[in-house]
Structure formats: C-alpha cells, structure tokens
Design a protein that fits this description.
There is one protein chain. The N and C termini lie far apart (49 Å). The chain contains 18 helices and 15 strands. The chain has a seven-stranded mixed β-sheet with strand order 1-4-5-15-10-11-14, sandwiched between helices. Strands 8-7-6-9 form a four-stranded parallel β-sheet, sandwiched between helices. A two-stranded antiparallel ribbon has the order 2-3. Strand 6, helix 6 (140-152) and strand 7 form a beta-alpha-beta unit. By secondary structure, the protein is an alpha/beta fold. The protein has two domains: 6-14 and 67-110 and 235-447, 3-Layer(aba) Sandwich (Rossmann fold); 46-51 and 114-233, Rossmann fold, CATH 3.40.50.1100. The chain binds pyridoxal-5'-phosphate. Pyridoxal-5'-phosphate binds next to helix 6, helix 12 and helix 16.
Length: 457
C-alpha cells in the first residue's frame, strides 16, 4: 500500500454516461401525483415545469444515459474531481481505517451542484426555454444554476429564502456576478408570496415556500419560463452519479474498495451521486459495501419522518411524491446552522432506505462542527456545514474501526467547501450554536396535513 495522497484522473477519464439506479433497483418506482387531482401526473403536467428530455430521464429505466458533449466540455473546467486519501486525518485519529474523500468542493461554485445545473441548463436551452426559475436556501443551488445560465445564455430567476438572503449576501452577490436575478422569498412577485406576507410580513421564509414561488412563476409564464430543482428528483440524482463513477475508477487506482460509503443528505443528490454506482456493484456483483446517508437531528426526514405521500412544496403546486417527510409545512429551526433543510427526501433514495439497501443516521449540530474542525486541522479544507455531517459519521466509523482493530476502508463525499459559511463557524466558535432535536409533537402535527391519497401508504 502506497502513501499516495491524491488520485487524479485525466480529462479523458471523465465519464461518458450517467448511471440510472432505476435500471437495477429491485423496487418499483412509486407514482408521482398531481397536487390537486391526486391522480398520477401526465407528462403534460410536468412539461409546464420541465423540458421533455428531463421528464424522460425522470421516468427512464435505461441503465446508462449519455452525457452530452457540451456538458462534458463544461464539466472539464473542474472535473474529474480529485479523490484524496485523508492520511493526516487517519493519523490524527490513530485509526487503522483508510479514509478517502471525493472533493466536490473544487467546482467553481464550491459544491457538487453544478453537475446537475449544467445538465439542466443544457436540456432547457435545447428545448428553447427563455428563462429558468428556481429557489435556493443557503445559495449553493442558486449559484450553481446561475453559473449554468451564464454558460447557456439563459436568464435565471432565483427565489432565495429570506433569512439566507439577509444573512448570506456573498452567495447572493455570486449569483448576481453570474448574471442572475435574486429575490428574497417570500416576495411580493407571486400570489403565494403576497398571501404569506399578508399574514406575516416578517416571515423568514423556507425552502418549501421558495419552491412554491419559483413554481408559480414558471407555471403562469405560458411556457416561456421553466422551473429547475437542485435535488430530490430522479434526473438530479442521475446527473450526480458522475461523482460515483469517477470515484470507482479512483478507488481502483488506489488499489482498494470501500467497505463503507458515506454522504450527507438534504434532498439526497450528492449522497446518491456517490453511492448509487457502488449500490450497483452491491446489487449486481455481490459486493457488500455499507451505504450511509447522514442527516441533522434538526431535520431528520429519513430517521424520524414518515415514508409516505406528501407535497413537494408548501403551497401544493409541485407534485405529490412518496418520500420520507417531516411534513411540507416544515420550517427548520432558526438555530440550525447546518444546511440540509428540505422537509422531504428523494423518492428513489427514500425507497431504498425503507427497503434496507441504504442506512440512515442523524447527527447533532455541535458534534458536526467539532468533526469539521478535526478535519480542517488535519486535511486543511474548511468543509461546508452540510458535508461536515458526513465527516462526523466518517470519524465515528474510523474510531469504531480503531476500537475493533479493523482495517476498514471508508469513502465519503466532501460535497462542498465552507468558504461562504463562515458565519456558521462563527456561531460555533462563539458558543451560540446549540444541539436541537426536531420535537416529536411537531412531526405528529405536520402529519395531519399530509395529502389524503387513496393509495397504499
Ligand atoms: C445542497 C448541498 C447539500 C445537500 O443537498 P443534497 O441534494 O442532499 O446533496 C449538501 N452539501 C452541499 C455542499 C450542498 O450545497
């Protein structure tokens, strides 16, 4: 075993195909329902929001879907991303485990999100879309789509959750630098936004509300504007598998194969992106890699939410999907600094967790930031608070391996860097962050407003 630190692929090794888990998943896809009629949605309904090529990817069962040349050309600005072996972290922990991470923070906007943003802008351009609307929480997705819009010359309208808009001006400025229009949500630009503001002028906003605004603008644009989502949907998970396909080649270069693959989950895209190619090997080649999705105790959709049909957004405009959910009215606690704030979870990932193919755990806020700093002080990189949830679990795995004297091989996705999240670190340093468990009563109350769907839950 060499002590090589970074495993670097050539541009020519950039994958030519995304991997579609629906080709190999032993689970039948669950229906996607219209938010008013609760009947299965038709491509017609979806085509108000998305270009047809993305709708076809959403329902495709083809195993490999070709990455268009134009998309690969743009990927080459930062892909293939490096795989690092965290030798210094291993030493700091005194663990016999080998820890590897895929560094998606090297993308121009600092996270994995451009992997799908570039693809979505490409298919929208090809379909003649004149503008794309979207929402953003902390700003990672908004900046990725703004970047993609600038490459394909498509105007981007971003509805940014108001607390983040006010607290994170640098992400907003980054979006504006790429040429996007950014609005604080709830805004007075939509009927839904105005209705929220009429009741609560100080409303801090939520992802669910911002999605409703972005969807409303696209849905009422007579087909001129489309809507784009940065996580949750099948086509988003599909585009992110470029991460895992590269990682497979790089683990091969390292001469090892992971016993455990770990990623944080908000809507589930970066975790699925790294994990699904390894799940393929579990399903088809008899490998036994454990796949662990990590979420915050403040937004524990998989570990404590219900696996059931729920609305994708607050205003019941987006489709109803079967997923792990905390309820579509969920507004994350303001004290939670760690990102990963969506109420639901990708349906494909939810189903695989529910059937036991993928494990999920939740970690608390203080332990997460503690792990982030252990990582920073050995590997030098400031992780995004989201990614730090994965790091907490990686460190726990490595310490468990130490206790058991096992040479475990751990791979995780470093989904992004934290350079725009230093205010969260400041809150941690100053001691104002606290642990927060989402209260059981809040989950119970939210379940009362689930759609009454006439299908087996
Ligand atoms: C958006 C984001 C996440 C969470 O989204 P997923 O779809 O679950 O990947 C995680 N990490 C970073 C850095 C992000 O920007």
């Amino acid at each position: 075993m060499s002590d090589q630190t970074r495993f670097i692929l050539n541009e020519t090794d950039l994958p030519k195909f995304w991997y579609n888990i629906n080709a190999d998943s032993p689970l039948a896809p669950t229906p996607v329902l219209h938010p008013q009629t609760m009947e299965p949605v038709t491509p017609d309904f979806l085509s108000v929001l998305f270009p047809m090529e993305l709708i076809l990817q959403e329902i495709s069962t083809e195993r490999y879907i070709q990455i268009p040349d134009e998309v690969r050309e743009i990927y080459k600005l930062w892909r293939p991303t490096p795989l690092h072996r965290a030798i210094r972290l291993e030493k700091a922990l005194g663990t016999p485990a080998h820890i590897y991470y895929k560094h998606e923070g090297v993308s121009p906007t600092g996270s994995h999100k451009p992997n799908t943003a570039i693809a979505q802008a490409y298919y929208n351009k090809a379909a003649g879309t004149k503008a794309i609307t979207t929402e953003t929480g902390a700003g990672q997705w908004g900046s990725a789509l703004s970047l993609a819009g600038s490459f394909f010359n498509i105007p981007i309208e971003v509805y940014m959750v108001k607390v983040s808009y006010n607290l994170k001006p640098y992400r907003r400025l980054l979006m504006e630098a790429y040429g996007a229009q950014v609005y604080a949500s709830p805004s007075d630009r939509t009927q839904f936004g105005r209705s929220i503001l009429a009741n609560d002028p100080e409303c801090p906003g939520s992802l669910g509300m911002a999605i409703s605004e972005a969807v409303e603008v696209a849905a009422t644009s007579d087909g001129v504007k489309k809507y784009s989502l940065g996580s949750v949907l099948n086509h988003v998970l599909l585009h992110q598998t470029v991460i895992g396909e590269e990682a497979l080649k790089q683990m091969d270069m390292a001469g090892e194969y992971p016993d455990v693959v770990i990623g944080c989950v908000g809507g589930g895209s970066n975790f699925s992106g790294i994990a699904f190619p390894f799940l393929r090997n579990n399903l088809k080649e008899g490998k036994r890699t454990r796949l662990i999705a990590v979420e915050p105790t403040a937004t524990p959709s998989i570990t404590r939410g219900l696996y059931t049909f729920d609305y994708g957004d607050t205003a019941h405009m987006a489709p109803i999907i079967k997923m792990h959910t905390l309820g579509h009215a969920f507004v994350p606690p303001p004290i939670h600094a760690g990102g990963l704030r969506y109420h639901g979870m990708a349906p494909a990932l939810s189903a695989l967790c529910n059937a036991g193919y993928i494990d999920a755990i939740s970690v608390s806020q203080l332990a997460t930031f503690e792990a982030a700093l252990i990582f920073t002080r050995s590997e030098a990189i400031i992780p995004a608070p989201e990614s730090a949830h994965a790091i907490r679990t990686v460190i726990d795995e490595a310490l468990d391996a130490k206790e058991k004297g096992e040479k475990r091989v751990i791979l995780f996705n470093l989904s992004g860097h934290g350079h725009f999240d230093m205010a969260s670190y400041q809150a941690y340093f100053s001691g104002t962050l606290q642990d927060y468990d989402h209260p059981e009563e809040a989950i119970k109350a939210a379940m009362a407003s689930l759609p009454k769907v006439d299908l087996p839950a």
